[in-house]
Amino acid sequence: MSKNLDKVKAYLLDLEVTITDEDEAEELIVIEDEDRGIQNMVIDCEDPILIIEQPIIPLPKDGRDVLYKRLLQMNRELVHGAFVIDEDEKNVFYRDTLQLENLDKNELEASVLSLSLALAENANELIEFAKK
Known about the structure:
With about 130 residues, the chain is of the alpha+beta class. Helices cover about 40% and strands about 35% of the residues. It has one domain: 2-Layer Sandwich (Yope Regulator, Chain: A), CATH 3.30.1460. The protein has a six-stranded antiparallel sheet. The radius of gyration is 15 Å and the shape is elongated.
């Protein structure tokens, strides 16, 4: 196991999230924390950065222009990370990147909690977009 993966895993265990999957060869971990709205969050050590990504909703067939505008407005309120759309335009994700070299537990926690806060503030609206 790499030192980066070891460090990230130790931080995640300190944050008391559940590690649901781990791939040492790919240096990635999948976590969950239902109370914080974290589900299938992928934490990927891609030296020199740590990529944090979680699927949020499938992209609706109708009303995409309204959703795109609203996601940009939501991004303005995020403390860390952003809502993004995958290359296939099928899903909305939360994504953040952090530097691995000087990563600390507080920085990782802030990124994870940023998503929790964004979901708490926007969950109903995101659910309505997902229904379309």
